[in-house]
Amino acid sequence: MDSIKSRINAxxxxxxxxxxxxxxxxxxxxxxxxxxLFFDGFKHQLKIAGENNTWFTRENLLFSIKNWAKALTSxxxxxxxxxxxxxxxxxxxxxxxxxxxxxxxxxxxxLSVLISGHSVLVKQxxxxxxxxxxxxxxxxxxxxxxxxxxxxxxxxxxxxxxxIATGSNNTARYFEYYFKDKPSIIRKNRNSVAVLTGNxxxxxxxxxxxxxxxxxxxxxxxxxxxxxxKDYNFDxxxxxxxxxxxxxxxxxxxxxxxxxxxxxxxxxxxILENGFLMIKEDKSYxxxxxxxxxxxxxxADDLKIKLWEDRDQIQCIVANNFIENEIAFGQTQHPxxxxxxxxxxxxxxxxxx
Length: 353
What we know:
Elements: H1 4-18, H2 35-52, H3 58-71, H4 74-81, E1 93-97, H5 107-115, E2 119-123, H6 131-142, E3 150-152, E4 162-166, H7 169-178, E5 184-187, E6 191-195, H8 202-213, E7 223-229, H9 234-241, H10 251-266, E8 271-273, E9 278-281, E10 291-297, H11 300-309, E11 314-318, H12 346-352
Parallel strand pairs: 1-2, 1-4, 2-3, 4-5, 6-7, 6-11, 7-10, 9-10
Antiparallel strand pairs: 8-9
């Protein structure tokens, strides 16, 4: 009989399998189920994923895998589902339309649907299509009752009961129209911001560089804008960013840097840059690759009001004792299972459909 415990156990075993793959080393461990069938195959899938999408460097692929390995423990999974009334309703077919901006970006939705006892119909982005089908196969081996509950399609979605879709602001408008008769979670563009006071330590600013540069800034949890006081000295900021200077050795990133720098210079915008990052004063939240926007603030209370009013555009706020639900410097790319995208509780949604 399919139960929440058996589903938790399946994902716990998947976490064990993934724990063999990290930036430090890829190493076969004892006691991992079906390793003889899947270990070498997953190594191959990682290679193909990187060849298919050059933003998916080995470092970033393995960073994502390591994070999921740490998240998928029995304790984490049990704590996550404890507050939700899962599995009481009839099993539904939930369509999940995934983005492809960072490796396994749609995994949380995939996990949420299956842990809730529903079946999942996955439409992947062509930018990130290699890893998840392989991991789904592993899940079917460790928990045969998941067989028949996971479907991948490249065709038009049909026959589903609810949908979770992630895309740009433009595609979100299409999704909202197309799925208007179905229960849905539809996610749009969001960016993350940091609030600086000028009192940050060198270590905090170095940690912030991880929030800015991880996944080349392509994630919604990547910091693309900083708020700074009027007399802010950027020297400390650039010193903190410097530990990521080798990013310019990535050809795709370097091309974006050169292109965006040329656009800024031709437009006669004032920018500061250090050879691998540009900063520009701008009211917008979404900065192009290789650039971070900044905006001055006069007082903390006004900034808190602004951040509240703009909350639909913001995924994370990185700060130090500034605002509730802030994230510590360097931690944006380490979300817990219960840190929901856009603040929408996916499990709660899935329990009610």
